[in-house]
TrEMBL record:
The UniProt record lists the keyword Hydrolase: no
Cross-referenced Pfam families: Ala_racemase_C, Ala_racemase_N
HAMAP family: Ala_racemase (MF_01201)
Catalytic residue list: K51, Y283
Reactions catalysed: L-alanine = D-alanine
First-level EC class: isomerase
GO molecular function: alanine racemase activity; pyridoxal phosphate binding
Name by which UniProt lists this protein: Alanine racemase
UniProt GO cellular component terms: cytosol
Stretch forming the signal peptide: none
Cofactor: pyridoxal 5'-phosphate
Binding sites annotated in the UniProt record for substrate: R149, M331
Length: 392
């Protein structure tokens, strides 16, 4: 334990608690939703995406929970995330997909991580890494089917596939996967979805023509897996839904999907006080008491991941009652309406919603963002802990 790290010191007034039982439930529930209507031998696989510290939930504990719930794959963005999982003892299938030019792939190859090539130049770097490691790289090829982000452009795809075939013949790589990523999966009626599906099929045809037989072909994130059955292929890459947050609450809420949000952010009121009519609250006095008002001080702010856009918009559950945030959210603290509450009373900033506390979806609506950003950025000086670690 690093005593210089303030987030490791006990701090019951500001906590992030992650329910690993909820993560396991969600992974199992999603497998059922995605693959449950197929005969057992035709079901595909599940990847739980644990990038960005598992969307703020904790890389290693979440990875362990995902494996307990049967995830065949884990997904990481950066090589560092993938290697951290190996160092923590994870030995299952693991894919990463975001390396910059000049990256040394040898450690990833040695660690049996599936790596992704976006271009022939990157494939050559993977081959170099494989030669240093002294074993073939497990290589996945990414096609840009319309997101215009990572992956080979359509015009460069044949060259990448051909080069991968040669590298496989030379014994430097094994092509284990071919994949792409959807731009508009959270808008089920968007025409880009069908266009990307068709482009992916075209890309897969070139892979088959080259005589490559990847273990997995995959295209779907959470929204794709839930709402585009044609995008499921052999494997779905589940990020946000694994954490119990709907990728698009306007399509279906997490409740409607049978998912349980895993993150709770809670604390205690540091003090309460009575304001007189006309008293301004917090920086800029953007909120002024219209009448005598009892307020409470919550010891968390944007330095702890509480979005400042929630100023005078967000609500918290204080002593069991929903109450508005008053005025601007500061770096370390915020002020909340607190009629009848006392210093030391419990404050729920975020949670599954079962006690009436706000959810990530609520914060997203208040702050004009998405639940992904709310949970991923949550954390700072709160003590983070995990519950439900051992039960199965
Ligand atoms: C983040 C990410 C995912 C997971 O997306 P969700 O919408 O969170 O399910 C899947 N695939 C790739 C390539 C990603 O970057």
């Amino acid at each position: 334990m690093d005593a210089s790290d303030p987030t490791l010191r006990p701090r019951p007034d500001a906590e992030v608690v992650v329910d690993l039982g909820a993560v396991r439930h969600n992974v199992r529930r999603l497998r059922e939703l995605v693959w449950g209507d197929r005969p057992a031998d035709e079901r595909g696989q599940v990847m739980v995406v644990v990038k960005a510290d598992a969307y703020g939930h904790g890389l290693v504990p979440v990875a362990r929970a995902a494996r307990q719930a049967g995830a065949e794959w884990l997904g990481a963005a950066t090589p560092a995330e993938a290697l951290a999982l190996r160092e923590a003892g994870d030995a299952g299938r693991l894919l990463c997909w975001l390396a910059a030019p000049g990256h040394d792939f040898a450690p990833l190859v040695s660690a049996d991580v599936d790596v992704t090539a976006y271009s022939v130049a990157q494939l050559e770097e993977v081959v170099r890494g494989a030669r240093v490691a002294g074993r073939p790289a497990r290589l996945q090829l990414k096609l840009d089917t319309g997101l215009s982000r990572g992956g080979a452009a359509r015009d460069d795809w044949l060259a990448l596939v051909t080069a991968a075939r040669h590298a496989q013949d030379d014994g430097d790589v094994r092509v284990t996967g071919v994949w792409s990523h959807l731009a508009c999966a959270d808008e089920p009626g968007h025409p880009a979805n069908a266009a990307q599906l068709a482009a992916f099929e075209d890309g897969l045809a070139l892979v088959a023509d080259a005589g490559l037989e990847p273990e997995v072909r995959h295209l779907a994130n959470s929204a794709g897996a839930l709402w585009h059955p044609g995008a499921r292929h052999d494997l779905v890459r589940l990020g946000i839904a694994s954490y119990g947050v709907s990728p698009a609450p306007e399509v279906a809420t997490s409740d409607e999907l049978g998912l349980v949000p895993a993150m709770t952010v809670r604390g205690r009121l540091v003090m309460v006080k009575e304001l007189a009519e006309g008293d301004g609250v917090s920086y800029g006095h953007t909120w002024t008491a219209p009448a005598p008002t009892r307020v409470g001080l919550v010891p968390m702010g944007y330095g702890d991941g509480v979005p400042r856009h929630g100023s005078s918009r967000a609500e918290l559950l204080v002593a069991g009652v929903r109450r508005p945030v008053l005025g601007r959210i500061c770096m370390d603290q915020l002020v909340v309406e607190a009629a009848g509450a006392e210093a030391g009373d419990e404050v729920l900033l975020l949670g599954p919603g079962s006690a009436g506390e706000p959810t990530a979806a609520d914060w997203a609506a208040w702050c004009d963002t998405i639940g992904y950003e709310v949970v991923t950025r949550m954390g700072g000086r709160q003590v983070r802990s995990w519950v439900g670690e051992d039960e199965r």
